[in-house]
Design a protein that fits this description.
It is a single chain. The chain is an alpha+beta fold. The chain has a single domain, classed as Beta-grasp domain (Ubiquitin-like (UB roll), Roll), CATH 3.10.20. The protein contains two helices and five strands, in the order E-E-H-H-E-E-E. It has helices spanning about 20-30, 30-35, and strands at about 5-10, 10-15, 40-45, 50, 60-65. The chain has a five-stranded mixed β-sheet, with helices on one face. The longest helix has 8 residues, at about 20-30. The termini are far apart. The mean pLDDT is about 90.
Length: about 80
């Protein structure tokens, strides 16, 4: 089985070819994977374009996990 090297938030993970975005994030950092699954984070590619969690990756992919800011009901007060 061939592997691919993917960059996540400045780190490196080696994964099986065809691995999806979500699995790459979970492998890199389980906490970030949980946040992404809960909708509290999303993933962009190296150009800043948002990626879906099921999108397959190719070797050399650059991912950035962006954690969404949580705002309370009185945040603007």
């Amino acid at each position: 089985m061939s592997t691919i090297r993917v960059f996540v938030n400045g780190g490196v993970v080696d994964l099986p070819a065809g691995t999806a975005v979500a699995e790459a994030v979970w492998t890199f950092d389980a906490d970030l994977g949980q946040r992404m699954a809960a909708g509290a984070a999303y993933v962009t590619d190296g150009r800043g374009i948002e990626l879906g969690p099921a999108e397959p990756l190719t070797s050399g992919a650059i991912l950035r996990v962006v954690v969404r800011a949580r705002r309370g009901p009185d945040a603007d007060a």
